[in-house]
Amino acid sequence: MARPDAVYAPPPERRSPLLAASGLLEIAVLMGASLAAAMAAQRMWSPGLAETLGLMDGSAPDFVASSVAMAVQFAAQYGVLFGLVAIVGLIRGRRSARSYALVPPAPEAPNPLAHGLVLGLIISIIPALVFVLQDIAPIGRDTPIWAVLRGVEQDWTYWLFMAVGSFALVPLLEEGAWRGYVLGRLTEGFGPGAAVLMTTLLFSVLHVQYLQADAAMLLTFAGLIIASLAFGFAVLRTGSLVPAVIAHVIINFPLPTELNMVKIAAGVIALVVFRRAVGVELSFWGRMISTLWVIPALAALGGVGFAIAAAPNAALYIAGGAVIAFLALGFLKRSAWSLKAD
User: Fold this and answer.
1) Which residue has the higher pLDDT, 303 or 338?
2) Which residues contact residue 218 at a Cβ distance below 8 angstroms, ignoring those fewer than 6 apart?
3) What is the distance between the alpha carbons of residues 50 and 37, in angstroms, rounded to a whole number?
4) For residue 187, what pLDDT is reported?
5) Domain locations in the chain?
6) Which residues contact 118 (CB under 8 A, 6 or more apart)?
7) Span 203-213, average pLDDT
8) Is the pLDDT assigned to residue 72 strictly greater than 80?
9) How distant, in Å, are the alpha carbons of 207, 234, 291, 298 from that of 225?
């Protein structure tokens, strides 16, 4: 683990309600534009992912066409996002790669490969357990894509699809967007601890498809929250996206049931062997996050769950209310952790 003072810090700026509000507005606009670009690409590109996977008519999936459809969507979504981030960054003075954690880990940090490997194995325990149970003793419904992938021949087209949509491209894009851009931007206005919680909340809201009255989906959602928190704190600890990307790859890498069991065992062993380091890490989390921030985070996530169950459209209002609540609390209580100057 990295030393406690190896904390990721964007260019130092004076925190203020205006800076905090502008950060949230900037993220909303840029993320909204990227999602709009993704939806436009989905409408314009034919055949789309649903058709190529056979979700519309139950036909056999065409993984090559599905990979192309996903690549087009990602190119539109993240091309727009990273392009806008670069432009806004130039205007605001966030020009260095370090401002987005696009640098190697700090010198005092542990080996990034080992750090990412251990982190990935421990966090993989919950998602791997879900997949094992779904295979041998189902605890809930499969997502549409899980159902398509179950039992298919794992030829090169399958691995192409999984590389694009799961373990190769997605970790780079999501970590660059969420831990590279969003986490750093929120850190400027709210402080590191609060920024990790807020990033996790926003990241979770975009994955509310897992928030259902279903054990498999709820466990998957819980694993996603834990992973987002761990990735965020890994970036704060090391100053780099590298360990988070490696851990993300390990979590997303598809395995058969037997190897997922091995993955669970390896995660438990890692948890036992590195229990002291894990304790230090959790202590670091505790120092970074005040109790005041935990309550609205949990309340907001619970509110999203009730909203989805009651009325899907209500989730938008809950998410908006959560952002407002965080903004208000940010004026009253910020992380006590001090940012390091460049």
Assistant:
1) 303
2) 140, 210, 211, 212
3) 18
4) 85
5) 17-332
6) 270, 274
7) 80
8) yes
9) 10, 14, 17, 11
